[in-house]
Amino acid sequence: DIQMTQSPSSLSASVGDKITITCRASQSVRRYLSWYQQKPGKAPKLLIYAASSLQSGVPSRFSGSGSGTDFTLTISSLQPEDFATYYCQQSYSTPNTFGQGTKLEIK
Amino acid sequence: EVQLVESGGGLVQPGESLRLSCAASEFTISSYWMSWVRQAPGKGLEWVANINQDGSEKYYGDSVKGRFTISRDNAKNSLYLQMNSLRAEDTAVYYCARDLSDRSSDYWGQGTLVTVSS
User: Fold this and answer.
1) Which of A72, B18, B37, B108 could form a disulfide with A43 if both were Cys (CB 3.0 to 4.6 A apart)?
2) What average pLDDT does chain A have?
3) In angstroms, how far apart are the furthest CA atoms of chain B?
């Protein structure tokens, strides 16, 4: 199975900050990498698919990059509604494993 | 608006079975791969299983292989998860999701809670 490792596990930041979350795969997943945002008590929401494609309706302050084993999610200017937990997922091979999550908190 | 509604969760004892359902509306599931993902209380997301458009391909996570069965009824526009030999560690909110062509999941249900406890 492919292991997905996110860093950091938690992050404190302020409104307006630019932040980056990293996701590393234990082997190449090509560009089969997606990012999700989850708020407490809610279902995950797809932000980025195919490593860098912005899902319809997602603000342009979210962006993704990378290929192979190393990926990043960047939020260019944090808004109050962005404080949540973020997960990466590989869909290159089953099981389609998730990273452990990154909790983004308000500083 | 695309909607997925899970049902069938509840409290069961270890070793018992449960069948989850996911009813889709405003789209036809026969055109999509579909997935189940779960989340234990206070924990991260865990991929459980997925199924292709006609049900001929099914894949499972290691922790549920041999105990869970994913299925679909395209005529009823519904997805299912049959869960047998349930364990305490299967306690989680179970989400169904619609998959894009790259197997990322663009629409999710609200989830149904399964609690396995004696």
Assistant:
1) B108
2) 97
3) 41
pLDDT given for residue A61 in this prediction: 98
As given in the structure block, the two tokens for residue A64 are 């993704």
Residues of A in contact with B102 (CB under 8 A): 32, 34, 49-50, 91
Q: Please list every residue in chain B whose beta carbon sits closer than 8 Å to the beta carbon of residue A99.
A: 44
How far away is chain A from the Cα of B95, in angstroms, using its nearest Cα? 8
Cβ neighbours of B62 in A, within 8 Å: 1, 95
CA–CA dist A25, A46 (Å, integer): 19
What is the distance between the alpha carbons of residues B44 and A38, in angstroms, rounded to a whole number? 10
Model confidence band, residue B114 (pLDDT cutoffs 50, 70, 90): very high
A3, A21, A61, A105, B43 from A78: Cα distances, Å: 28, 13, 8, 11, 24
